[in-house]
Write a structure and sequence with these properties.
With 174 residues, the chain is of the alpha/beta class. Helices cover 29% and strands 22% of the residues. The protein folds into two domains: 2-96, MurE/MurF, N-terminal domain (Udp-n-acetylmuramoylalanyl-d-glutamate--2,6- Diaminopimelate Ligase, Chain: A, domain 1); 103-173, no CATH class. Helix 5 (144-148) links the parallel strand 9 and strand 10.
Amino acid sequence: MMRLAQALAWIPGGKLGGDGSIAISRVHTDTRTLQHGDLFVALKGERFDANDFIGKASANGAVAALAHHGKLPQGMAGIEVDDTKLALGALAAGWRSQFTLPLIAVTGSNGKTTVTQMIASILRAWKPDAMLATQGNFNNDIGLPPTLLRLRAGHRIGVIELGMNHPGEIAYLA
């Protein structure tokens, strides 16, 4: 669990709105998966703007939002930034820095998800609750940060899938 002020410290150029002592239990980009205590990350794409759903996120349990400047509703705690996708990556990197466990990174042209899940299955047999693994094929600059943000003190090892669709993405993810 992290505090909103701790998250702010990891996000360059972020502006705090509301109470920095709010506890954040999980981080999500989808309003349908939110639970009470979550931080909602309002990603913006070519055909959508999740800043429009911050109110729904709050109704679904989000206690704070990571939003674009000027988009955080009055009375909602959160962090305002220029680019929520980059801020999500910075938040994940900051959270990851709190843990010393080894991460196995799986990348390549084909078979990444299969190999990641095979390794995860073997490690689960060793210690069921001590391992973090990428869920599905969430392996890019939007999918990997939420995986890293699931790291907890009880984890002893992680298996992370890294995919790419543009030059330099693996270096960014690593």
